[in-house]
Specification:
This protein has about 190 residues and is an alpha/beta fold. The chain is built from 8 helices and 5 strands. Strands 3-2-1-4-5 form a 5-stranded mixed β-sheet. Strand 1 and strand 2 form a beta hairpin.
């Protein structure tokens, strides 16, 4: 059976896209030590990202913009990004294993299973977690050059004290999620 692991990153930040990845690992070439990307150092994530990209049968990455997040809400945008990542795979999986308790609507007929804590226990979901986090982190680091002074390279858009202070001092950027409370309250009525 062709199984894809799917996970998303970036539900909590005030800025940037939500990113999802879908990964189909090679059952004949397991990757030891995979776990939730949040449990790994940046060095370990870099290591595993290279191995996953080299040894996985297929992987795909999808993102939904801050505008799409504001339009649909973060939960729906996360599910849409996951479905989009699966649709971008070069082969259609027969089973999709998703981290969490909600299932995305997959456009082709397959078994979809939501697994709470799947990023810790299912290697394909762990791989998707790592791929998605690495992609989003690099994107947020690049935004540091476009929007200097916000600290995106450090906090990756999450609502840290420094980020909230930068929003107050510098204003809202085009990558901020206007529907999120700390951003919304700064939008002139």
């Amino acid at each position: 059976m062709i199984v894809a692991g799917v996970d998303e990153v970036g539900r909590g930040p005030l800025a940037g896209p939500v990113v999802a990845a879908a990964v189909i690992l090679d059952p004949n070439n397991p990757i030891e030590g995979l776990t939730d990307s949040k449990k790994l150092s940046e060095k370990k994530r870099n290591y595993y990202e290279a191995i996953i990209k080299e040894h996985a049968l297929y992987y795909a990455i999808a993102e939904l913009s801050p505008e799409e997040i504001d339009q649909h809400n973060i939960l729906q945008a996360s599910l849409m990004a996951m479905a989009k990542a699966v649709a971008l795979l070069d082969i259609k999986p027969q089973q999709v294993l998703v981290d969490g308790n909600k299932k995305p609507d997959i456009e082709h007929d397959c078994i979809v299973e939501a697994i709470i804590g799947g990023d810790l226990t299912v290697p394909a979901i762990s791989a998707a977690s790592i791929i998605a986090k690495q992609y989003r982190d690099r994107l947020m680091v690049a935004y540091e050059d476009t929007y200097p002074g916000y600290g995106f390279a450090k906090h990756k858009g999450y609502p840290t004290k420094a980020h909230r202070a930068a929003i107050i001092e510098l204003g809202i950027t085009p990558i901020h999620r206007r529907s999120f409370g700390p951003v919304k309250k700064l939008i002139p009525a």
